[in-house]
Amino acid sequence: xxxxxxxxxxxxxxxxxxxxxxxxxxxxxxxxxxxxxxxxxxxxxxxxxxxxxxxxxxxxxxxxxxxxxxxxxxxxxxxxxxxxxxxxxxxxxxxxxxxxxxxxxxxxxxxxxxxxxxxxxxxxxxxxxxxxxxxxxxxxxxxxxxxxxxxxxxxxxxxxxxxxxxxxxxxxxxxxxxxxxxxxxxxxxxxxxxxxxxxxxxxxxxxxxxxxxxxxxxxxxxxxxxxxxxxxxxxxxxxxxxxxxxxxxxxxxxxxxxxxxxxxxxxxxxxxxxxxxxxxxxxxxxxxxxxxxxxxxxxxxxxxxxxxxxxxxxxxxxxxxxxxxxxxxxxxxxxxxxxxxxxxxxxxxxxxxxxxxxxxxxxxxxxxxxxxxxxxxxxxxxxxxxxxxxxxxxxxxxxxxxxxxxxxxxxxxxxxxxxxxxxxxxxxxxxxxxxxxxxxxxxxxxxxxxxxxxxxxxxxxxxxxxxxxxxxxxxxxxxxxxxxxxxxxxxxxxxxxxxxxxxxxxxxxxxxxxxxxxxxxxxxxxxxxxxxxxxxxxxxxxxxxxxxxxxxxxxxxxxxxxxxxxxxxxxxxxxxxxxxxxxxxxxxxxxxxxxxxxxxxxxxxxxxxxxxxxxxxxxxxxxxxxxxxxxxxxxxxxxxxxxxxxxxxxxxxxxxxxxxxxxxxxxxxxxxxxxxxxxxxxxxxxxxxxxxxxxxxxxxxxxxxxxxxxxxxxxxxxxxxxxxxxxxxxxxxxxxxxxxxxxxxxxxxxxxxxxxxxxxxxxxxxxxxxxxxxxxxxxxxxxxxxxxxxxxxxxxxxxxxxxxxxxxxxxxxxxxxxxxxxxxxxxxxxxxxxxxxxxxxxxxxxxxxxxxxxxxxxxxxxxxxxxxxxxxxxxxxxxxxxxxxxxxxxxxxxxxxxxxxxxxxxxxxxxxxxxxxxxxxxxxxxxxxxxxxxxxx
Length: 937
Ligand code: GAL
Ligand code: MG
Known about the structure:
The chain is mostly beta strands.
C-alpha cells in the first residue's frame, strides 16, 4: 500500500511531538529569541531545485532538476501547476482514503554545509502541504502528511560537511480528506525549513502559569531544568522563589489582551539557554462563565486564515504582523486560527500584541457532506489515528504559547467517537485550557457551547436560556463583498447576555490572488473546475490588506466603549475587562445646524459616566479616544440636518416652450427638456448635456450578501430592465413658479408588475424641486432592491462634497461606522469597487454637491440614499474583476428613497425585518440647484 494512501501510518522517522523551542549558546541571543541566532542554526529557506510531475509514480529522485522554486512557498503561485478553489467539495472523486490518479508531485532539492558534523541536530519542517518524503544524502529519513504540523527529523550522525536534501512532495494523500478547509488547494514546502541543534534531542518543556493566593507561579514540567531566570521586556531579572520546578513570581504582572505584559523565561541546561515567551495568565470557568485571571471577559473576535495575495498560504512574519496591527486597530481582542494551527511566530506575536487565541487543529472533513453520512469519518476507527495525531501534534508544539486560551478540535467534521477520544486526549495533554468544538452540540465533552451563523433571534434565545457552559459563536457576519449588514443587532444581543462570551466574525481577509494587472483572482480564474468562485473573498480586509467598509463597521460595533446618547444624555457601556475605562477619553463636540461648534470638551471615561449636554444642537459627537490619542469609536446623536450651503442664486426667469414630444424650459444658459413620451429629462448647459434621465428605477447590481435570498427574485422579474411610459403631462405656470406634472408608469418586461408614479418638477426661486409619489400596482415582487431616481451626469463633474453619513459607504443596516458630517471626496472614492465588483457606494445624505471648478450641482433633501459612480449598474453586474468595469460617457447618480438592507446572507443572516425594502407606496422628493460660474466656464 502506498504510504500516502494508508491511514494506518501517519508519519515515519520523525521525532515525537514536543514544544517549540530553540537553544542558544549565550544569554544575549536567548533574550533576543531570533531563531536564526540559535545554536547550530542552518537556514534552508531560499531557492531550491525543483521539478513538478503529474503523478507521484513519475517522480524519480535521479531526475534532472531543471527548474527553481522559492522555499517557503507554494508551487502553484510560482508557475507550476495551478491553484484550485473549492469551499467544501473535494476537487476529485471522493474515494476515501485513496488519492486521484493525477496527483501533482514536486521534487525539491537543495544542498547545505554543516560545520559541526558531530552536533546533535535535527532537520525541521514547519509545514509541508501535503505528503512529504525526505531524503538526506540519498538516505530515506521518513515521511509526513499533516500540512500545518511542524516535524523534526533527527539527522545527528547522518550529516556530512556537504549535504544534499531531497524532498518529494505529493499534493494529495489520505490526509487530504482531513484537510478540506474552505481555501485554495495549494501545495509545497510553505513554511520555514532549517537545521537546529538540541543538547538533548528528546527533551521537552511544558510551562504553566497559575495564580495562587494572588501570586503568580510558573511550573515547568521537564526532565532537566538546572536554572531558570525570568526577565521582563526590558531584560531586567524578576524576583522568583524556586521550589523544585515551581517558581513563585511575586513581581510579575498578569497578561491579558488589553495590557499584554509578557516575560522571557530562560531555562539553562547543559550550558545552553532555552528561552520561552510567557504571559502569566489563567483561564477558568466559574459559575458557567469564562474568566481570565479571575476576571469576566468577552472575546470580540475574528477568524483568520493564512493568506498572502501573492504567495497564498506561505505567509511571512511581516504578513502576520500586518494582520495583527490592523486587527488591534479594529478593536479585536481574540482570534480563531481558522482552521489549522498557525506557524509558531504567530502565537508569540499574539502574546505581544494582545490577542486571546482559539487555536484550531488542522482537521476538517467537510467534503463528506456529499456522502450519506457526514459523521462517517468522525466515527471511523481507521481514522482515529489521524484524529489523535492531529490533536496531539497541535497541542504539543503549541502548548507553551500563552496567548492560546482555548483549543478548538477542528471544523465542520461532524461528531463521533474520534472527537470524543481527541477531546479526552486534549484534556490529558493540557489541563490548563478550555476545549471548543462547534459540532459537539449536546456539549458532552467540550467546555464551551458554540454555533455558527446562528441568527440574531436565536442568539437572543441562547442568551435568555443559557446552556450550563459559556457560549461563543465561532463564525457569523459573513464579510463577503459589500457588508456585513446587521452586525450591530448581533452585538446588542452579545452585550446583553453574560453567557455569550465570544463572537468571531467570518473572516479577517479575502483569500484573493493578485494578478499582474492588479485584479484579484478567485475560484475559476485558474481554469479550476469545479470551483466556488468568489466565495473566498469574504474578509474585512481585501487581498491587499486594505480595510473594506466592513472593517470599519466591525471596528465601531465592538468599540471598547459603547457610547449611548439620548437627548444629550451620554452614558457608557464598557467592553474593557482587564484595564480601566479611565484610560480612555471621550471627545465631545456639539454642532449647530450651520456646523458651528457650540461646545467642545474632552473628558475621561468612567464606570458610572453620566453626562448631560443642555444645548440646542443639530449634532452631538462623542469620539472614544485611546491612550495613544487614536479614535477607536465614533458615536453621535443627530437631531437635525445641516443647513444647505446656498449656491449663487440665478435668475428665475424661465422661457417655456412645448412640442408634442417635450416640454422645454430655458433659463439663463441652461435648458431643460422633459419628454412627454418616456419621461427622460435632459438639462443642457450651452448644448452640453449636464444631467439626464430623472426617472424612477429599482435596478441595482447584485451583492454577494443578497445571492441566497433576493438576487434570483430580482433577476427573475427583470428588475434591472424597467421600461417607462408617460401617461400624461400637465404644465402649470404661475407668476413665480412653473410646474410640470406627469403621470408615469414603469415596470419590467414580461410581468404585470408596475409602479405608477406622479412626478412633479417645480421651478421656483431659481431652484428645481422634484417630487415623486409612487404606487406599486401589486406586491408580486414583495421586496425591491431599491427605489429612487437615476441621473446621468456629465463626466466633467467629479468633486463631491456632502452633508451626510460617511466617510465610507453606508446602508441602513450597515452604518454604525458612519457619522453625519460634511465630507469632501471625489467620485472615485465615493464608490470604490469591491475586488469582485458589486453594488456599493451608498451614503445616507441630506445635501450632495458634485462639481468641477465652474459648475456645481446640488441635491438636497432629507435622508436621501445617494450613490454616485463612473459605472452603470449593468457594467458593475457584468464585471467579474475590477479591470472589467467599463466607464461610459456619464457619471451615474442615484437619488434613492429606499435601499434594501445588506444582511450577511452570502452565508449567514438574512436582511433583518426592519431593513427590508418592502414594495409599498410612498413619496419622496429633493431640491436640485445648479450653479454655473460663467467666468470659469
Ligand atoms: C463556514 C466554514 C468556513 C467558511 C464559511 C463560509 O461554514 O467553517 O470555513 O467556509 O463557512 O465562508
Ligand atoms: Mg468548510
